[in-house]
């Protein structure tokens, strides 16, 4: 069976990556691509590496042009998806790559996004431990018609800490995550801005002091894993490489916790997960390990002097952090093989 697909906001970073993955999926047929300032231009003019769809023309982002497809991906700026989604058929599978439907708390939404709360959709992180570790989020994606794709930073932190929290091996307070993030995670102009400031490369912390919009989403996820409220201090650092996230997560150990017990918890949680790799003792990932693929790669250590767990999690912010998560969750919702279209991704078809 083939499913007809539309991508709203296909001219941006997330939209471009969705098109790359759609081209790899044997049961998806792209019908419509929409944009804003690029309306009337071809996909090839904006994304020359996407040769499969080079002649497709961007049209206006209007509900009547999106309705009637089996699947609609929304790759729009935050707070723009909600109004559009209301106009789409309840029978259409709608997958939102923005933040509009991720949060369950209206108070958190109003505090961090300051626009009307639109509600909550099924959360697109299948491997996330929920109910204190008794289940995984995957079960909530089966047969759903509305999916909220997680934030990219959120994915690297959540997957990097959830097993330790669900096993009670780290404390729920004093969790600190510092992420080095590629410029594609901050919009199309971020790369040019950083290299303009310093041609040899640069890095800058942003949204410092607990104000990043992903903070409540991270705490929402990890609280579900722990079965109790979790508090996180999260600081992203934008660096002058294009794609990838390297999350360094640390947390105070619970009494009696050992590295062996922590490794057992991670292996129990992720041992049968196709898209998560826990490295052997003493090994730690780099962003290169996850570029262009849908993997999260995790390394584990204990800082004996500080009595803290250290986990390093690498993902591609545009794949596992966005478009890959969208396709993986879509596969589950449609009762397809979860890995379909995602098992043989290659760096060779990335934008040069």
TrEMBL record:
Involved pathway(s): Amino-acid biosynthesis
GO biological process annotation, one example: L-arginine biosynthetic process
SUPFAM superfamilies: Glyceraldehyde-3-phosphate dehydrogenase-like, C-terminal domain (SSF55347), NAD(P)-binding Rossmann-fold domains (SSF51735)
GO molecular function, one term: NADP+ binding
Gene3D superfamilies per the UniProt record, alphabetical: Dihydrodipicolinate Reductase, domain 2, NAD(P)-binding Rossmann-like Domain
Keywords: Amino-acid biosynthesis, Arginine biosynthesis, NADP, Oxidoreductase
Residues in Semialdehyde dehydrogenase NAD-binding domain copies: 4-133
One Pfam family linked to the record: Semialdhyde_dh
Keyword hit for Amino-acid biosynthesis: yes
Keyword Amino-acid biosynthesis part of the UniProt annotation: yes
Xref: NCBIfam families: argC
Classification via PANTHER family: N-ACETYL-GAMMA-GLUTAMYL-PHOSPHATE REDUCTASE, CHLOROPLASTIC-RELATED, N-ACETYL-GAMMA-GLUTAMYL-PHOSPHATE REDUCTASE, CHLOROPLASTIC-RELATED-RELATED
HAMAP family assigned to the protein according to its UniProt record, in alphabetical order: ArgC_type1 (MF_00150)
Protein name: Unannotated protein
Organism of this sequence: freshwater metagenome
């Amino acid at each position: 069976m083939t499913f007809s697909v539309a991508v709203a906001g296909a001219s941006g970073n997330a939209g471009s990556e969705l098109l790359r993955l759609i081209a790899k999926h044997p049961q998806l047929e792209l019908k419509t691509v929409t944009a804003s300032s690029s309306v009337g231009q071809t996909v090839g003019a904006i994304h020359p590496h996407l040769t499969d769809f080079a002649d497709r023309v961007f049209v206006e982002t209007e509900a009547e042009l999106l309705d009637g497809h089996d699947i609609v991906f929304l790759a729009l700026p935050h707070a723009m998806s909600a109004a559009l989604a209301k106009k789409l058929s309840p029978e259409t599978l709608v997958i939102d790559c923005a933040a509009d439907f991720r949060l369950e708390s209206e108070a958190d939404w109003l505090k961090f996004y300051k626009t009307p709360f639109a509600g909550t959709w099924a959360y697109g992180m299948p491997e996330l431990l929920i109910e204190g570790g008794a289940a995984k989020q995957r079960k909530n994606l089966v047969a759903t018609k509305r999916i909220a794709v997680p934030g990219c930073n959120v994915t690297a932190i959540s997957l990097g800490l959830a097993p330790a929290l669900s096993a009670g091996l780290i404390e729920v307070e004093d969790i600190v995550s510092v992420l080095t993030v590629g410029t594609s995670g901050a919009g199309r102009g971020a790369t040019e801005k950083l290299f303009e400031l310093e041609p040899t490369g640069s890095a800058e912390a942003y949204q410092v002091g607990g104000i990043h919009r992903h903070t409540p989403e991270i705490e929402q996820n990890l609280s579900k894993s722990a079965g109790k409220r979790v508090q996180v201090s999260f600081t992203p650092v934008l660096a002058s490489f294009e794609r990838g996230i390297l999350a360094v997560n640390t947390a105070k150990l619970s009494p009696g916790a050992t590295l062996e017990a922590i490794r057992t918890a991670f292996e129990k949680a992720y041992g049968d997960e196709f898209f998560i790799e826990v490295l052997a003792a003493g090994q730690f990932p780099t962003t290169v390990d996850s570029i262009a693929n849908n993997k999260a790669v995790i390394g584990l250590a204990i800082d004996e002097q500080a009595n803290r767990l250290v986990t390093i999690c690498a993902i591609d912010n545009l794949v596992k952090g966005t478009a890959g998560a969208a396709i993986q969750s879509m596969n589950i919702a449609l009762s397809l093989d979860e890995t379909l279209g995602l098992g043989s991704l290659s760096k060779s078809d990335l934008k040069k």
